[in-house]
């Protein structure tokens, strides 16, 4: 496929108006075109049809780094749906330059955006996300706390175990689809411990208890 404006316009039209096979073929071809297709695909992330947005997002994920500047700009859009799509693709691309945008998205007023940011950070797996994800374990929205538990499991950082134990013991929240946050925390602990056989659960329990006792000690002082 030639990288001409006419050929790109034709593929964009097929992505929006074609049958399922034509849409799949068009999204694949646009992804292969690289940087030349970034601008029209970015426009499609605002499309009313969710399937069109998803296929455009997939193509941008295939394009990768050339799409980063536009995606980072979209991550600050006033439209939360656009922010969600941009953040999801940033997680697929997995570029370290997107970390600051994802950290900011963890504090987004729309919990759907914060949830997607936690998922993206877990997919990227950069340990610089460790502390932001620990903070996200206390987000008011269960969907975000659930995603943070899973992200910490993917990062496989043993130091997350005390905070995950706290969620497992104290979190009574359920996600919008009915999943237990406490169960997600327990699964995360199991995954981390399975990957770190040298980790002592008793040791982390002592650390957790010590952290909990600090406010009392400060109050007495």
Automatic annotation (TrEMBL):
Transmembrane regions listed in the UniProt entry: none
Taxonomic superkingdom: Bacteria
One family name in Pfam for this protein: HEAT_2
SMART domains reported for this sequence: EZ_HEAT
GO molecular function, one term: lyase activity
Entry keyword set: Lyase
Record PANTHER family: DEOXYHYPUSINE HYDROXYLASE, PBS LYASE HEAT-LIKE PROTEIN
Name the record gives this protein: PBS lyase HEAT domain protein repeat-containing protein
